[in-house]
Fold this sequence. Notes:
CATH class of the largest domain in chain A: Alpha Beta
Radius of gyration of chain A: 24 Å
Largest sheet of chain A: 7 strands, mixed
Largest interface: A-B, 88 and 93 residues
Structural class of chain A: alpha/beta
Order of helices and strands of chain A: HEHHEEHEHHEEEHEHEEH
Strand order of the largest sheet of chain A: 6-7-5-4-8-9-10
Number of strands of chain A: 10
CATH superfamily of the largest domain in chain A: NAD(P)-binding Rossmann-like Domain
Number of domains of chain A: 2
Strand content of chain A: 15-25%
Distance between the termini of chain A: 48 Å
Oligomer: homodimer
Amino acid sequence: MATGRTHRPATRSRGIPEATVARLPLYLRALTALSERSVPTVSSEELAAAAGVNSAKLRKDFSYLGSYGTRGVGYDVEYLVYQISRELGLTQDWPVVIVGIGNLGAALANYGGFASRGFRVAALIDADPAMAGKPVAGMPVQHTDDLEKIISDNGVSIGVIATPAGAAQQVCDRLVAAGVTSILNFAPTVLTVPDGVDVRKVDLSIELQILAFHEQRKAGEESAADADAAAGPAVTKNQHRKGPDGDVPAVMPA
Amino acid sequence: MATGRTHRPATRSRGIPEATVARLPLYLRALTALSERSVPTVSSEELAAAAGVNSAKLRKDFSYLGSYGTRGVGYDVEYLVYQISRELGLTQDWPVVIVGIGNLGAALANYGGFASRGFRVAALIDADPAMAGKPVAGMPVQHTDDLEKIISDNGVSIGVIATPAGAAQQVCDRLVAAGVTSILNFAPTVLTVPDGVDVRKVDLSIELQILAFHEQRKAGEESAADADAAAGPAVTKNQHRKGPDGDVPAVMPA
DNA sequence: CATTGTGAAGTTCTTCACAGCC
DNA sequence: GGCTGTGAAGAACTTCACAATG
C-alpha cells in the first residue's frame, strides 16, 4: 500500500534504514580513531574490521548516504567523518539534561563521551533537596522544581532519565510537556510517550539476562554437540518443549 | 583478517530467535510486576501492552517456548514467570565481576537490578592500587593482579567491563583467558574475542547519537508535518505505537 | 464465546556477487 | 588491479488473520 515510496532513493534521499543509523556512530568512532592517526583513506574492508561489521554491510550503509568513496582506492577519512557527523546531526550542539543524579546519573555526568561529540550537559536535576547546589562533575545539581524552566531556558530537546523506576514516567511526562522530544531512559521501566517523541532505553539488567541465556546454553550443550552431528534421539532431559504432559515443574501454582 | 571475528553465527541451536530472547527479560519484568500485585492470569493483549510490544509478536515469542497459555483465558502469571526465568537461566545464580570501578563501575556495583535477578556481584576489580581495599557498594575493591584467581575461585563466567576504552581489550583478554565466556562491555571500543565468547555492548554515546539523528530530522520536518494532514482519509494520525525502538514517522518528504 | 497458537504474507535487514569505475 | 556501489537473493523478523480449543 505504500504509496510512492519504496523505490530507489538513489543518492539524495532521506530514507536511511534504522539499522544503518544505529551503525553510523560505530563507523564514526572508528573513523575518528583513524583520523587521529592521520590515516588519509580506508577501504571498506579495513573500516569494517575496525568497526566490527561485515564489509558488504558497511558499503551498503554508506550507499544510503551517497557515493562518498573512490573505486580502487577507498574512502577519504576526513570527508567521511564530516559526512557522517552531519548526517547524525553532530555538527550542531545538543544541550542535554540528566535527571536523577544518583550513582548512575553522576557517572553519566562525568562520562566524557557525551561532551566529545556534540552533546553538552546543560543541567543536572534531582528531586532530593539535599542534592541541590552540590557540585557533580563540576556543575551544581538543580532541583526538579525548576525542570521546566531549565529545559526552556537552555532549549533542551534531549533528556536522560536516570531516576529510580518509580519516578521515571512522571519525570518523562514533565520533560515531554516542557518540550523534550528525545529521551534516553536508564530506568528499568517502559515509558509511554506521545507520538513524535523518541525513546531509547538502556537496561543493564536486560543485557545481563540475555548473556545468561546464552551462557546457560553453552553449559547445556557442552556435551550435546552441534545440532548436525547427532541426528539420533537426543535423549534425556532439558527437553522443555510443549510436552504433551509431564514437564510441569514443581512450581505450577494453583 | 575478517576471519577472527565471529559474533554469534546465528542462534540456531535451540530454535529461539535472538529477537525473541532479547524480549524475554521485558516480559519477565512485566510479569513480575503482575505477580507482585497477585494478578493470576493475563491475556497476550494486556501483557503486550505492559511490555510495550504488539500482542501478536508476544504470542509468537511465547510459542517458541512452548504452549504455555490457555485459549479463551490467557497465561498463568506465576507459571510464565517460572518458565521464562528458567529459559533465561535465571533459576541459577550467576556470579559476576565488574572490572573498572570508576564512576560507572561504582554505579553498576550499586545497581540493585543486578542482584535482584539471579546475578550476584562476586567481586569488584580495579587497576588503581589506591582503590584496593576501599569499600564500594559494601565490598572491598580488589586489584587487577588477582583477576585470574578471583575468576577461578568464584567460578565466574560473566564479566562486566567498565574501564576506559584503552584498557578494555586487555582486560577482556585476561577475563577470557581466565575462563569468562560472556562479557558486557561498557567501554566505547570494539572488543575482539575468540569463538564461543559472547559480547554485548552498551554504549551511552551511541544511543545519544541515534537520538540526535532523529531529533535533527524532526527539526527539518517541522513544517512538512502540518501540510500533510489535509490529504488522507484516516491514516496514520495517532498511531499509538511506541516501541523501545522508536520508528520513523510516516511523513517522509520525497 | 474469548483468546491462543501459527501458517502465510509482508517488511526489513544482511549477504552475495559482480558490473562499473578509478 | 583493486575497490566501490548495488541489484538480486536470502535470512530474519514482524504482522496478519483465522482455525483450533479450552
